[in-house]
Amino acid sequence: MKRRVVVTGLGAVTPIGNTVEEFWNGIQSGLVGIGEISRFDTDGFKIKLAAEVKGFDARERMDVKAARRMELFSQYAVAAAKEALEDSGLLMEEEDPFRVGVSIGSGIGSLQAMEREYGKMLGKGPGRVNPLFVPLMISNMAAGNVGIQLGLKGKNINVVTACATGTHSIGEAFRSIQYGDADVMAAGGTEASITPIGVAGFSALTALSESTDPKRASIPFDKERNGFVMGEGAGVVILEELEHAKARNARIYAEVAGYGATCDAYHITSPAEDGAGAARAMTEAMKDAGISPEQVSYINAHGTGTHHNDLFETRAIKAAFGAAADHVKINSTKSMIGHLLGAAGGVEFITCVKSIETGYIHPTVGLLVRDEECDLDYTVGAGVSMDVEYAISNSLGFGGHNGSILVKRYEA
Fold it and tell me: What does the radius of gyration of the chain's CA atoms come to, in whole angstroms?
């Protein structure tokens, strides 16, 4: 028998708020966290906008000495994980730490460390490279630092599937608890890649929007969409085996009911044109949960704002849902916070949980010009208040990675 898994804690660092409360208030008010890049001089860059985290001070969120030995992506992860753990009410002194694990991924790790130390090597020689360069840079250090800072000694893994990282990390944490590898997992994604080489690289790929209007830059499913806006941050949740949560009288936000993961096996950057891989991930998640498409209230789409992604994801939803595709509410949180890359799935999972909790589905902000080929209900204009029983969060990553997590309203 697979064990039931519930969500008992939420933590987030985002371009519209550095806690879950701030983030959700921003979501409900339709706040767009996109603005001019402040992290570096964009002279000579075609890209001028990003969705930066604002006002984050690691010294206020964690041990100062420890923070100095973390790059920004790890700091975001630790801050979000600490918030999630505190929110859950889990007291580690009362737990077997070897039954509490971590599944937090980063798609890239620290581009800041790479740029900084490579510059030192070129300018001053290899002997000047920081001895901690490698452990600061590598992507698994987000999960490692969370384990160290919070005393979590169980399974500790770092899933790296580009922009599907956060979703796969939560999915693998879900499976770990279902099958008894852990009782509790801190799960999600983190990213901090708004750097010269990060922006230049995605720009060279023609993946980023060149818009200079923050309100018309990240516009998923809009006919005038022309790329995504790079964001940053972290989304971490506490997943817990149901009986373990009940035994400590934990507040339960929602239940994780299904998980699907596939590969397009098609192209290194473009999704499959017919959406078959993403469709199969959704159908596998619904099969895992034992429900039909008609029971799904809401889909938080990957919805990046690139031409191919939005068109092919629309086709995927139609393939997976059939006639029910016309009746499910869909939105893209990226319309407000940009694309958080490896962190996107973590924050968007939290959006699904909060939508279930509050009965509110936010609009796809900035969607003004209808695209004849993207013809589903993308929640245009204003948010919708409605009961949300089942919600799906989709993530698609370079390399053809597809992940879908299905979360439901908790019933005892």
Answer: 20
Q: Taking the model in full, what pTM does it have?
A: 0.97
Q: For the chain, which residues score pLDDT lower than 50?
A: none
> What's residue 260's pLDDT?
98
Residue 6: predicted pLDDT: 98
Whether 308 is a known active-site residue: answer no
Q: What is the DSSP letter of 255?
A: E
Q: E-assigned strands of 200-346? A: 233-241, 254-263, 298-300, 329-331
pLDDT at 1: 78
Q: Check if the beta carbon of residue 15 is closer than 8 Å to that of residue 34.
A: yes
* Helix then strand then coil, % of the chain, to nearest 5: 40, 20, 40
Residue 244 is among the residues annotated as catalytic for this protein: no
The strand ranges marked E within 232-326 are: 233-241, 254-263, 298-300
Is position 302 annotated as part of the catalytic site? yes
Residue of 244, 302, 362, 401 marked catalytic: 302
Would strands 329-331 and 298-300 be described as parallel, antiparallel, or unpaired?
parallel
Tokens of 407: 């979360």
Return the beta strands (E) in 308-389 as ranges. Answer: 329-331, 360-361, 384-385
Write down the residue that tokens 């941050």 correspond to. Answer: 233
